[in-house]
Backbone:
């Protein structure tokens, strides 16, 4: 309840601070990730590949790179609003995110607030046991976008709250249902027009609980650990 009130306060404060003549942000050539978005009733769809580099302490002293396929769809609405749908697939961990964004443009800089809800499910065989996991998270955040020559650069900050998590190890299961702060993410994305679409690439650094980074690694480490994600793709 306190978190929902805080998020509502952020949105209300931002709206109250705008001048009476505030307009929706100018579309950034149909951007996918830039806070300006694709424009009123316009859309972008992008596909790509990302690689996670997990900390050695989390994976038994072996740096594992876990590639995943990504797909992002974003639809723009009037007055700076937009919605996006993100799918991330890598078999052992498949995630679907639905988000609402609101942006405001000042010159060549665009600011935005966003809120995303995520659900995930995964399957893996560990030491002969069929292991299945499901979970959910809530990720409010903010972003700032810049127009740099013919490219668009976005910087995002997200706060991660874990809602629930359940993993089955054969006949046994482990459930964690407490809603709690799990960490944060900071990412940079560059979008460059190529043809009728956009080439995008970037990096993300997150400091989160081990459970969030690798769902089948239930660690008793009380500290949040750093990991890195590299990604690239093309938006149509």
Residues:
């Amino acid at each position: 309840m306190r978190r929902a009130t805080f998020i509502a306060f952020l949105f209300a404060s931002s709206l109250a601070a705008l001048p009476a003549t505030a307009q929706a942000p100018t579309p950034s050539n149909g951007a996918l990730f830039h806070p300006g978005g694709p424009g009123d009733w316009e859309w972008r769809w992008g596909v790509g590949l990302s690689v996670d580099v997990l900390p050695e302490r989390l994976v038994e002293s072996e740096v594992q790179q876990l590639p995943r396929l990504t797909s992002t769809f974003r639809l723009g609405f009037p007055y700076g609003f937009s919605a996006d749908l993100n799918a991330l697939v890598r078999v052992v961990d498949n995630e679907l995110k639905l988000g609402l964004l609101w942006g405001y443009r000042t010159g060549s800089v665009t600011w935005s607030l966003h809120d995303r809800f995520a659900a995930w499910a995964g399957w893996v065989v560990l030491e002969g046991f069929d292991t299945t996991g499901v979970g959910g998270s809530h990720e409010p955040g903010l972003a700032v976008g810049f127009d740099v020559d013919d490219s668009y650069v976005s910087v995002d900050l997200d706060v991660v709250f874990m809602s629930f998590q359940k993993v089955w190890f054969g006949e046994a299961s482990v459930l964690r249902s407490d809603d709690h702060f799990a960490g944060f993410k900071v990412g940079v994305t560059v979008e460059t027009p190529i043809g009728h679409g956009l080439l995008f690439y970037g990096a993300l650094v997150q400091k989160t609980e081990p459970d969030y980074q690798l769902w089948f690694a239930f660690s008793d480490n009380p500290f949040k650990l750093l990991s890195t994600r590299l990604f690239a793709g093309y938006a149509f």
In short: The chain has one domain: 2-235. The longest strand covers residues 129-148. Residues 2-235 form a domain with the Lipocalin fold (CATH 2.40.128). The radius of gyration is 19 Å.
